[in-house]
User: Fold this.
Amino acid sequence: MAVLSLKYLPDPILRKKARPVAKVDQVIGTLINDMFDTMREAGGVGLAANQVGELLRIAVIEIPEEPPLVLVNPEVTRRVGRREVEEGCLSVPGYSGIVNRSIKTKVKALDADGVPFRITAEGLLSQALEHEIDHLNGVLFIDHLVEPGELIPVSASEEMED
Ligand code: NI
Assistant:
């Protein structure tokens, strides 16, 4: 169990595409646990491996009052609809923005034991899935701003970060 150091914009690792995990072994399991520690310490609802300096396709999500979600090699298989929603990111501290996201998302991935699963999500979970899978492709929420370049400064107490 360890809190890892977060990577912040403009760290180039945030713009790199992460590579697939070949085998979900103990090393990957430790990284997943450390990612949860890091995300919880930072007060986020999601974290991708790029954000802790590992170019591996792993993301964790933990939305209040929902079970924690581990995604290894996740892929969005379907996006339905479009909505505008406010979003932030632990790697872009101090700012949020209004972004375009899907209304509903379907994702397939491996879990922490390497077992394939599929999930259909709406609301905050759908948003978090799109956000974290974007990270694994080097994409940040600032790439989806409804008004390009328009970021909203937020006070630390109000921050809602993915
Ligand atoms: Ni993020």
Summary: The pocket of nickel (II) ion is lined by residues 89-91, 131, 135, 162 (CB under 6 Å).
